[in-house]
């Protein structure tokens, strides 16, 4: 029998345990239907753990490092000051595990409402690749004369050729397996030094991928083009800060944070990759059954594709899209079903094999064409 995949599960805070519970129910169904196995280790991490013990990423590093993948729920709580969990756990994991590429599919699924008038699914199908370990998120900075009228804050943004090159090369390979168009998003007219380095790397690597058309868009212009002409874009590559911003705009276009998903990829197999919905912990609705678990379940689909279980990944995505299309609302009491009920509906479709595959003719696996093979 094939060795099981070793998965670390971090439910986290707020609605995290609810949506991750749905993803695990769908994973059970996928295992039963497609014959692979997983061994799951649940790891307590997040606000409650921090408040009880003061522990952050250091406490769980060794428990995560040897896994094939990490399924992540959410992290955050108003009882914990901003920056502690984000920097002490999430950014720390990305940097220590060298999860260099944050991959965010931006896809409008059939039947999912969008605030963009007239937008149709065939016009909105792109991937944004965000450099995930450098830029303004390296956490370097200082404050002088804090708390006085003379306070001065300095925040550094670090860009290395090696860091840029690995995500740009990945993005070219990803574009090669899709519609063969790569767009660099930056602010080269103002952030001249960093922008020039990004532009040089793209131009240098473009010679290795002559089949891929290369484009450039300023980040402010991207905020204009992304909602009005998303069909212009196939693979967008950008730095850490700009990527954080435009991917949330992309999530709104595709129907909201509840249906958006992401992969945080280690590109050389030296540590596990992490897969998460991007909606946050939403503590105000935790326990009410109002959270849409689709983002977490689609993260599971990305994880399965990364592990090489392509057929199961396609089935999970198709089942999720079919259930999404039947909901009267995408979240809240008007969703027409509780969080758990939505998860069960998706799991039942996966287990039966009756999900309508025509809803996703180009599966999320289209975004995975250039992903590294499993560590196994």
TrEMBL record:
Coiled coil: none
Name of the protein in question: 3-isopropylmalate dehydrogenase
PANTHER family noted in UniProt: D-MALATE DEHYDROGENASE [DECARBOXYLATING]
Cofactor(s) annotated in UniProt: Mg(2+); Mn(2+)
UniProt key word Mitochondrion: no
Keyword set, alphabetical order: Manganese, Metal-binding, NAD, Oxidoreductase
EC class of the enzyme, as a word: oxidoreductase
Domain Isopropylmalate dehydrogenase-like: 6-346
GO terms of molecular function: 3-isopropylmalate dehydrogenase activity; magnesium ion binding; NAD binding
Protein EC: 1.1.1.85
SUPFAM superfamilies per the UniProt record, alphabetical: Isocitrate/Isopropylmalate dehydrogenase-like (SSF53659)
């Amino acid at each position: 029998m094939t060795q099981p995949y070793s998965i670390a599960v971090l439910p986290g805070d707020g609605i995290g345990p609810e949506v991750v519970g749905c993803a695990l129910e769908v994973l059970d169904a996928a295992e039963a239907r497609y014959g692979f196995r997983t061994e799951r280790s649940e790891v307590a991490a997040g606000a409650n753990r921090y408040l009880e013990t003061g522990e952050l990423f250091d406490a769980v590093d060794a428990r995560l490092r040897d896994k094939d993948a990490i399924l992540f729920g959410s992290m955050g709580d108003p009882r914990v000051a901003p920056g502690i969990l984000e920097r002490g756990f999430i950014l720390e994991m990305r940097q220590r595990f060298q999860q260099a590429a944050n991959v965010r599919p931006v896809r409008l699924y059939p039947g999912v409402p969008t605030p963009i008038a007239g937008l149709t699914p065939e016009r909105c199908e792109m991937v944004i690749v965000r450099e995930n370990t450098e830029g303004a998120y390296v956490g370097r900075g200082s404050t002088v004369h804090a708390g006085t009228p003379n306070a001065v804050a300095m925040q550094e943004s670090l860009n290395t050729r090696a860091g840029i090159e690995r995500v740009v090369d990945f993005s070219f390979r990803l574009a090669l397996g899709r519609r063969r168009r790569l767009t660099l998003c930056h602010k080269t007219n103002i952030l001249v030094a960093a922008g020039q380095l990004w532009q040089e790397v793209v131009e240098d690597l473009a010679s290795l991928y002559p089949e891929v058309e290369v484009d450039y868009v300023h980040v402010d212009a991207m905020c204009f083009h992304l909602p009005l002409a998303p069909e212009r874009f196939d693979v967008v590559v950008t730095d850490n800060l700009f990527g954080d911003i435009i991917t949330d705009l992309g999530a709104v276009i595709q129907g909201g944070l509840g249906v958006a998903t992401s992969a945080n990829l280690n590109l050389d197999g030296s540590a596990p990759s992490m897969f998460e919905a991007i909606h946050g912990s939403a503590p105000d609705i935790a326990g009410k059954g109002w959270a849409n678990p689709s983002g977490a379940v689609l993260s599971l689909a990305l994880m399965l594709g990364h592990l090489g279980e392509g057929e199961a990944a396609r089935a999970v995505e198709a089942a999720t899209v079919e259930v999404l299309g039947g909901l009267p609302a995408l979240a809240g009491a008007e969703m027409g079903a509780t969080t758990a009920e939505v998860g069960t509906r998706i799991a039942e479709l996966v287990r039966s094999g009756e999900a309508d595959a025509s809803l996703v003719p180009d599966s999320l696996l289209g975004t995975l064409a250039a992903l590294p093979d499993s560590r196994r």
